[in-house]
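Issue 218. Parser rejects a valid record. Input:
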Amino acid sequence: MDESGDLGFSEKSTKFFVVAYLVCNSSVGVRTEMKRILKRLHEKGFYHCRQNELKFCKMDDNCRKIVLHKIAKFDVSLGAIVVEKRHVKLDLREKLPVLYNYLVVHHIISALVPSLEAGQRIHITFDKSLPKARVTDFNHYVEEKASYLFYEKGNSLPNNCLYSDHADSKYEPCLQAADSVAGAYFHKYEDLDASYVEIIKDVTSFMYLWRK
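Output the parser choked on:
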């Protein structure tokens, strides 16, 4: 899971905040392919060799499209939550940790519930953006959300089926893929440029837009 835009509400803040996620049965293949893409972009001189990770904001239009076309061929499903921030209630704007937890966790866990019900163990990797003091509470919220969604269906969350991790995207290529997905949706709504989303629309299984 990664995000694009910011969650601030000042005049300088972005109009939209995007959370994107990538779901796969095995992360090994995604990591391998993302590393290959980075190596090829370096070799062809399309992406500066000093950049040791794929960052959507640092890529030009050509690189972005190359990366997204590759992601579209992965054996994955993608999801995005797009928030038009001017429609966020005033009381939530003053409770950013609460708002962040809901936006990042609710829809992602909802999408993963069928896999959890099937007995699969889920490892969720979040971009390492939270202060250390909030990580434990955030991970607890993830488990509480999953437990609640199971409770609604009259079931109990299986033990040890869900693990949350917070990693540096520099060392986690799967986060770099999610970053590109988040960047694609951010450009569609913030900059009214849908060309990037068009590339990955066929593998996007979930999209939630918070706006009126």
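Fixed in the parser; the record now loads. The radius of gyration is 17 Å.
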